[in-house]
Write the structure tokens for this entry.
Amino acid sequence: MTHRSLTATVLIASGLALAAPAFGQSQGEWTFGAGVANVNPKSDNGVLAGGTVPTEIGESTRPSITAEYFIRDNLGIEILGALPFKHSIESNGTEIGTVKQLPPVISLQYHFNATPQLKPFVGVGVNFTGFYDAETKGPLDGTKLRVKNSTGLAAHLGADYWINDNAAIRADARWIDINSDVELNGEKIGEVEVDPTVLGVSYLMKF
């Protein structure tokens, strides 16, 4: 390649780079997301009733929403919401109850400019999980079960792929610290450590 053609190639490449759309987030902008989230509790969630009832909490998938406001370029505060998740509670392979929960999370997140379209991000935040509508089944049928609310830390990572300046596809994963006391007929019988991984896919819009 001659010096003249090399110079022309460099100039063309530089021009294309400058012309490429720099999708991303700027201070004062909002993004709103709609998608689905799968809450998958860790294995071996605890042993209740003085060590006689090992518990296993099942996974649940529901529609989810997010809203994020950018307080600086690429730095945002996000709120996660979803329709109520419903989990089965098993012991030694037998379902002993179900419970519903809502796990809103508020996170501070930083978005990286990996490429003009691909924007990975990391975040840390606080979660409040509200448990309700606990029901007993099988050997516990007829008793009153209560799983108490939980507050804990949450970690978040993922990536947005911007298909144009106002829309992106997001894939993400969260870890949430959820530890809750369990009561049966008003008496504490132990604690469950849910500590789920939450996997999500969503469609993001920027305003």
